[in-house]
Amino acid sequence: MRHVSGMRYLIRKYSLMKYAILILCIIDMVLLGAVFRVGQSRADQSNDPALPEHRYGAPSVPVMVLGTGDGQDGNSTGKEEKNVQDVVKIAITFDDGPHPVYTEKLLDGLKKRGVHATFFVTGKSAEAYPELVKREQEEGHVIGNHTYSHLQLTKGNRRQFKEELQKTNQIIKGITGCDTSFVRPPYGAWDKSLETELNMIPVLWNVDPLDWCSDDADCITRNIIAKVKENSIILMHDQYPSTLEAAFRVIDELQKKGYTFVTVEEILFD
After folding, report:
1. Cα–Cα distance list, 151 to 182, 190, 227, 237 (Å)
2. Catalytic positions, written as ranges
3. In angstroms, how far is CA 51 from the centroid of its own chain?
4. Which one of 39-43, 65-69, 135-139 scores highest in mean pLDDT?
5. What is the arithmetic mean of pLDDT over 91-115?
6. Quick one: which of 211, 157, 213 has its CA closest to 185?
7. In the chain, what are the helix, strand and coil shares in percent, each to the nearest 5?
């Protein structure tokens, strides 16, 4: 009898184990089904053009795509998409204009190349050729102040220097309808206290090819290419045919090397 009772106990225990295993299997199948449905729902939503690309973690800005390079791994083309942080910026600037002949030709060449520059105009030239200053503004260039008569600041003429800056600011605003924040002091002579007095920002340079004293476009071009680097500010003058020729050569060559030409505020503040 004890033997029979023991057998019955084992049978009941074995039956309970079968039921427990069966219940666990059913729970597991339910959970797997739920996971599959959620994954499928997210996949469908990520393909919906009405939803933002970054909703489920996809990047919303360009990133570098790494693939096998053979275009066989899904959507990879083997090319790397340029990251916005990889842009190498430089600024090209022109002083002393506008010039009745060369500034117009310069604007034509910049427009053709899709380049924006910064023009530091004298008040005297701006008064004489307001249509060129207006065109500079309309085509996306930045206009800065270069005093009225190209006056160099000294210890004895601070008041006159300040008055020339104020007068030129008024001339520029009268032409463009906008205030100007940037000033290039002739020969780089500057009084820092004028920054708060006039609410203006001085813009100097770190690449000077001395184009004003050379008519050799090849030499000017070489001088710039040899010195330029990321965030360089190039000083030129839209007063000479050799400057225009050199400027276009420099732009073409540096664009091929991956440089992007921007206006000075992008160098100073970005």
Report:
1. 16, 11, 28, 16
2. 95, 237
3. 27
4. 135-139
5. 98
6. 157
7. 50, 10, 35
